Amino acid sequence: MSAQLGIPPLVAKLLVQRGYKDKEAAETFLRGGEDRLHDPYLLKDMKEAVDRIRQAADNSEFIRIYGDYDADGVSSTSLLIHVFRELGYSFDYYIPHRALEGYGLNTGAIDLAAADGVRLIVTVDTGISAYEQVEYAKSLGIDIVVTDHHEPPERIPDAVAVVNPKREDCPYPFKGLAGVGVAFKLATALMGRPPMEWTDIVSLGTIADIMPLTDENRVLVRAGLARLQNTGNTGFRALSEACGIELDQVTSTTVAFGMAPRINAAGRLDHAKRAVELLTTGDYDEAIRAASSLDVLNKERQRIVDGIVKEAEQQWQGKRDAAQAAARPEPAVIVLAGEGWNVGVIGIVASKILERYYKPVIILGIDPDNGMCKGSARSIEGYDLHAALTECDELLDHYGGHQAAAGMSLHRDQLPAFEEKLGELAMEWMTEQDWIPKTAIDLVCSVGDASIHTIGQLALLEPFGAGNPSPRLLLQSAELSDYRTMGKDARHLKLSLRSGRASLDAVGFGLGELSNQLQAGLPVDLVGELSINEWNGQRKAQLHIHDLYFGGALARFPEREHFGQVYQLLRRKQRIPAKGIEAYLSGQCGWPEQMITVMLEVFLELGFIAVDGTHFVVAEAPQKRDLGTSQRYQEAKREAERLRSPYVPNEVMA
Predict the structure, then answer these.
(1) Distance (Å, rounded) from C-alpha 261 to C-alpha 297?
(2) How far apart (Å, rounded) are the C-alpha atoms in residues 269 and 381?
(3) Phi/psi class of residue 137: alpha, beta or left (left: φ > 0; alpha: ψ in -120 to 50)?
(4) CA–CA distance from 71 to each of 35, 134, 187, 272 (Å)?
């Protein structure tokens, strides 16, 4: 393949590992362009959607675009605004207020549409669950065309058209389109060509909604990023200024970390129309004002998130302590609710809590006046949120989403039953392996291989993101030549590595506390992603650390069988001198001495061993007790979980 496509062997190897095992598939992935886009009419109901919109245009009917308040919904709405302007339609747009109206179509908004003389509503990134709302609109003489990409319920709306690649009866070959991707296909059908001039907007929504960057999404995002580098969109130029992003160097990462959170901030804390105005205006002064206000909102969003995360973690710790006191396992699914929690940011809070504890998480804001809860959920592999919420249907007023993320509303009186049911489903569906976070490693390389030349080769696989992650490398036995902390409160870690004459810097965000366990000269194994660090005109390769193993101290936590292994070593001796016991046991089982100390503390707390003067003595007939009932075990496990989760999802990082 390397020879056939004229690509480095390293790139060919990665393509094969990622499933592109023949020349045609690999070439499409690497070089596929507009010609690789699928026919929009393969989407079920696309013809009906186009016919009704064109009929409205021919009859001078007033059309309303109805979008969602997240970055995908904003992008979808903005795209159709540009398209409808180009086609000369009579239209406006409407996005509900997240806090006042909630998600999706609502009867109040439909009443407003009727009063404004709207005869056709075209939804984007929403509508697939709006059966009753569509019926209500029809009773008022309003037709609805639904375009959406969320999981369809059993009963889909009886609309003029329902365009969603995830419909069971839809033959469309790619199911991973974002809401803005579906809107792009509608635009393609209406215009008779793919409107590639607006792929910058498509790339924003696709990246922000964490859609897989494969198939059509890869074509659209790659084209969109290229367009962003020389965009004529006034809003994007203003937004890049507010973010501090150099557009000529924009990547999927800078869109995810810089642009998307600010677009999302509008709908979270104010109204999403601010973001739509930014992406659709031609006035640069207006765009700068809008971008600056979004930047301010994003900073406020970060402050609010930090406060809720702190309260949520305290609440979760209370639940863990209560479970321990009752000698029962802690809840399998994290369900936390609080009055005054801003429902616009609870999804971010859920992501942060999941990253720390690696469990399915539901965060809910409670309205103290009526007791209604609005929640946002994030999940791990092995636990299907949409399926779980479907099983809890009788407890919920409303829900929607997919395997990894979902939203719901219910009364606070239902929360205990809701939490219990979700936990039961988790224990029924998930295996022991599902609870363990896993890091997929693409390549093993040396310090010398981790170079700018290698980064240049890997760049052929860009854009990186969901479905096509940046390659993760394992560096083995690199010598730690120097280390230091950096950032506020010494939160981050910077390492200098070497092997022979080769050297490499590595950065671990949130790993600063590991510095007191490091020692120059130790061998280090690291997993991370390569990037280029530019400083004072110099360009150097740098590794962003995901996990590391240094001098025997492991940033992970032993399983129960490892505790059992150490306990059996103690039982064989029965009585063993306390002096030097950590070194002895470490040599026998391979765990670092500091972890052996933790194990001994757990055994002492549970009564498995005791101290007799200068010796440890194994209890003859200890009471059977689960490791999870040990306070020291829980503390050590929490610390290991925290150290293992330095990274958070794109939106949260920003």
Answers:
(1) 10
(2) 30
(3) alpha
(4) 27, 24, 19, 9
What's the pTM value of the predicted model, to 2 decimals? 0.78
Residue 62 falls inside a structural domain: no
- The count of domains in the chain is 3
Domain that residue 603 falls in = 560-643
Task: For residue 279, give the amino acid letter.
Answer: L
pLDDT tens, position by position, 290-312: 999 999 999 999 999 999 999 99
For the CA atoms of 375, 260, 147, 140, the dihedral, rounded to the nearest 10 degrees, stands at 60
In a domain, 278, yes or no: no
One domain for residues 579 and 534: no
E strands, 243-379, are 334-339, 361-366, 372-378
* CATH number of the domain bearing residue 425: 3.10.310.30
Residue 230 neighbours by CB under 8 Å, 6+ apart: 247, 248
**Alpha-carbon gap, residue 222 to 229, rounded angstroms:** 11
DSSP secondary structure letters along 603-638 = HHHHTSEEEETTEEEE-SSPPP--GGG-HHHHHHHH
Tokens of 16: 């094969």
- What whole-number distance in Å separates Cα of residue 519 and Cα of residue 502? 20
* Candidate from 132-141, 333-342, 544-553 with smallest mean pLDDT: 544-553
Distances (CA, A) of 79 to 11, 124, 233, 283, 339: 34, 10, 12, 17, 37
CATH of the domain at 511: 2.40.50.460
Same structural domain, 415 and 473: no
Model pLDDT for residues 157-214, shown as the tens digit of each residue: 999 999 999 999 999 999 999 999 999 999 999 999 999 999 999 999 999 998 999 9
Cα–Cα distance for residue pair 390/224, rounded to 1 Å: 36
CA distance 108 to 499: 66
Same domain flag for 417 and 473: no
Residue 269 or residue 145, greater confidence: 145
643 pLDDT higher than 70: no
Please provide the distance, in angstroms rounded to a whole number, between the alpha carbons at the two ends of the chain: 38
Last residue of a domain, one of 521, 555, 589: 555
Mean pLDDT of 279-300: 94
Residue with tokens 């980064």: 455
3-state secondary structure of 647: coil
Asked whether residue 349 is assigned to any structural domain, the reply reads yes
How confident is the model over 6-29, as pLDDT tens digits? Answer: 999 889 999 999 999 999 999 999
In this predicted structure, the answer to whether residue 118 has a pLDDT above a threshold of 50 is: yes
Contact by Cβ (8 Å): 250, 240? yes
Give the domain CATH number at 637.
1.10.10.10
